[in-house]
Design goal:
Elements lengths: L1 E6 L5 H16 L5 H13 L5 E10 L5 E16 L4 E11 L8 H15 L3 E6 L6 H9 L17
Parallel strand pairs: 4-5
Antiparallel strand pairs: 1-2, 2-3, 3-4
Length: 161
């Protein structure tokens, strides 16, 4: 199986919203409002200052020379300005790989694509993400990609859902 990464397009919004809902349910046992997720994904797709989405496309031969290409995973990037370092952290968020394609290099392909872009983009100082405290599988996966626990805890004051 070959995995290619492309920028997401507005036509991907429904699939990305479905994956975001699946990820929230799987990782945090949260049921999110589909209309809200779709609106959020659509807004991110239309405004690169808010977010940048990538889609992993798997290609597999079906015999007779036919190749099937299908979306199998995604991640979203957002930016955080660091005055300490005079540069941008790129935050990896909304990571999801279709369960049938996990442990097959999809996340690694997404991560390496984003890492390469970050290293080539002037002013980007690194990659960050947050992971649920009890999600040891994800923590091991990110460590295997070369990421390390940064030693921070996240606090929030939510205003609504």
């Amino acid at each position: 199986m070959q995995v290619d990464i492309r920028d997401a397009m507005p036509g991907d919004a429904e699939l990305l919203a479905q994956w975001a809902a699946a990820m929230a349910l799987e990782t945090e046992s949260k049921v999110l409002a589909p209309a809200t997720i779709l609106a959020g994904v659509s807004a991110g797709l239309l405004d690169p200052a808010r977010a940048r989405y990538f889609v992993a496309i798997a290609s597999a031969g079906m015999g007779g020379g036919e190749v099937v290409r299908m979306p199998v995973g995604t991640l979203m990037l957002t930016r955080e300005w660091s005055d300490w370092r005079n540069g941008d952290w790129w935050w990896i968020q909304s990571v999801y790989v279709d369960p049938g394609y996990r442990r097959r290099g999809v996340l690694s392909a997404l991560y390496r694509h984003v890492e390469d872009l970050a290293r080539q983009t002037e002013g980007v100082i690194g990659l960050r993400l947050y992971v649920e405290r009890d999600n040891s599988i994800a923590q091991r996966t990110y460590a295997a990609l070369g990421m390390a626990d940064a030693g921070y805890r996240i606090y929030e004051a939510g205003f609504g859902d």
